[in-house]
Amino acid sequence: MSEATPTTAPDGGADDALLDKARAFSAALLDGVVLDTGEAALQHAAGTCAILHAIGADRATRACAYLSQAAGQLAKPDEQLTKAFGPELARLARENLGLVELLRSARRGGSAQHGHQELMRRLLLAFSSDLRVVLLRLASRLQSLRHYAAAGATPDAELTQESLQVYAPLANRLGLWQIKWEIEDLAFRWAEPRAWAQITDWLARRASQREALIAQASAQLQTALHGHGIAARISGRSKHAYSIWRKMRGKSLRLEDVMDLLALRVIVDRVEQCYATLSIVHELWTPLDAEYDDYIARPKPNGYQSLHTVVRGPRELPIEIQIRTEAMHAHAEQGVAAHWAYKEAGVQGYKGVSAASRYDAQIALARQLLALRRELAEQGAAATPFDDHVYVLTPQARIVELQTGATPIDFAYALHTELGHRCRGARIDGALLPLNTVLRSGQTVEIVAAKQGGPSRDWLNPELGFLHSARSRAKVRAWFNAQALEQTQAAGRAAVEKLLQREGRSGLGLQELASGLGLRSPEQLFERAGSDALPLRQIEQFLRGAPSAPSAPELRAGRAHQPGGVLVVGVDSLMTQLARCCKPAPPDPIIGFVTRGKGVSVHRAGCPNARNLQQQHGERVIAVSWGESGDEIYPVDIAVEASDRQGLLRDISEVFSKAKINVIGVHTQSRDELAHMLFTVELRGLERLPAALDMLRDVPGVRRASRR
């Protein structure tokens, strides 16, 4: 286990000033504040800052170790931190504090495996905004473990398991080896106390022997390398307790049988010297079979590079030899910090990705985090709720979560609806590929968009595979519906305005006209006129003062039943019309309402409008009943709700055709993958309606079919 890092670390210049200001700002706020771990908040902040300093984190991240703790004590953290430290630090502190709350929430729910998967997902989402948030969480967790060790306390089992199963793998994926090893060794002592005591005791009793062997082997190898003109820096180390235990479990070994408890690290100037050094090592000592790995030619998934071999050194004891260059060593020791330290020099970083800018480093690191998520998912015996998702990157290294099978168009719609509409192409990892390409986790996607325009109808063809997400399909349909509505309204407006000019009524308000025709707004008037649902003849009759043409034959009533008519009790030769709001038809129970200048309007007894009229103008309600039925045809509205799919309207139309029911009007609208349809049909009576509704309900995808 590494030695504890001091809680303060020397900085310089501007760093000193910023950290001093952050400490001073936080000190008063955190005085007496104790965290859930039992550690004083100010002490925790100082320890976290020191750990971040050791891995080379930037000054804003170190200052945020204090400000994240202080933010929880402020009434208006955004406003107060922005005023004191600027928007960048305020945002960083806010995101770190928010992530802490998300992690607590994930920790409280579900099984251990599910909780760890959710925890990693939150870390991924946090990284997509700012990598420094992840560094803060790693440093904070390590400081908490150090506190428990120093206080002689035992953390709860969940914190220990999180440390081993989430934080240590995350540090490993980022190349933060020192943090990884220390988190593992500290958590191991509480996760497996007996095994930890056995291994550490065994190592302690042989410490002096190991140190002597390391010194002897270092001297022999240094002499051999010098003789070949290779300048090298050699250091020795003992294997960490947790890694020893994992090797024992993985290979079913006894402690005495673990071969690479001793290790030498050789650091040279150039890659070719690595292989030359390997040859010299094998000349000096006997290599063990199957104990050689070339991580220079084939780097580890996290970008680690080094040559590994195990030889029988002095006294025939096995020693692991690691050979690498200075740049490889910087990456192995510092991970993320290696990108920052070498970015000006343009050193090749993770798997050949140039770290010439923070952008390059962030893209490479994002890929490592995505790879880590896949590894953790593969370790679980059962599928997790996130196995049906992929994670792809924007050019700015933001991680976007999509359903498995998603395409670049789905990706564009996930970023912004307007970007999806204007999507015309996509570069995937720099290559221009078709828009129906299925995306994989870790890919970087850049959308090529037109300045204006809309989606293609081909996108809705499932056989072409342009869209996978139901949300994306709904947005495309909504665009086409909006375009159709706009065209219909434009045509309706032109027709209505032309009619008003011809009738000399241009001064009539459009809202007044719409209300007079029983419509809510001018837009609804234009839509009805443009779709021929409201004939222009009916508007013309209204403008000339005649009663608007009903959607069923106008009927006259007397004291005797008239064929196809409505009997209006007590009034002779009174004009009647069927109300458009409820479209009554025999044998519906009906009531009449005496209108001003338009005769009697006949409503179904249960019509909401009729009930309102009874309450407000009860004196104008008149009793009516149906006359003898003849050949009259009545309009009836049928509402259908169904899961939207291709061919739905065709299938419903076939039902009406089989039932020999004439459809005179259709209005459809799609929302949230549901199709809401209103059909106006012609019937001589309602006898055939129940059978027709049953047939509609049998259509695949139909959820509800009823008379409106």
Walk me through this protein's architecture.
It is a single chain. The protein has 708 residues and is of the alpha+beta class. Among the domains are: 1-190, Hypothetical protein af1432, CATH 1.10.3210; 389-468, Beta-grasp domain (Ubiquitin-like (UB roll), Roll), CATH 3.10.20; 634-707, ACT domain (Alpha-Beta Plaits, 2-Layer Sandwich). Helices cover 48% and strands 17% of the residues. The protein has 25 helices and 21 strands. The strands form six sheets. Strands 1-2-5-4-3 form a five-stranded mixed β-sheet. The protein has a five-stranded mixed β-sheet with strand order 11-13-15-14-16, with helices on one face. The protein has a four-stranded antiparallel β-sheet with strand order 19-20-18-21. Helix 3 crosses helix 7 (131-151) and helix 6 (112-129) runs antiparallel to helix 16 (358-379). The longest helix is centred in the last third of the chain and has 33 residues, at 470-502. The protein starts with 13 loop residues before the first helix and ends with a strand. The model is unreliable at 1-13, 336-357, 381-387, 546-565 and 569-573 (pLDDT under 50).
Topology readout:
Blueprint: H1 14-30, H2 41-54, H3 59-71, H4 77-85, H5 87-108, H6 112-129, H7 131-151, H8 157-173, H9 177-191, H10 193-205, H11 207-227, E1 233-238, H12 241-251, E2 262-268, H13 271-284, E3 286-294, E4 307-312, E5 318-325, H14 326-334, H15 336-342, H16 358-379, E6 389-393, E7 399-403, H17 408-415, H18 417-421, E8 423-428, E9 431-433, E10 445-449, H19 470-502, H20 510-516, H21 522-530, H22 536-543, E11 555-557, E12 566-568, E13 574-578, E14 590-594, E15 600-604, H23 608-616, E16 621-622, E17 624-626, E18 634-643, H24 648-658, E19 662-671, E20 674-683, H25 689-697, E21 702-707
Helix pairs in contact: 1-3, 2-3, 2-7, 3-5, 3-7, 4-5, 5-6, 5-7, 6-7, 6-8, 6-16, 7-9, 8-9, 9-10, 10-12, 11-13, 14-15, 19-21, 19-22
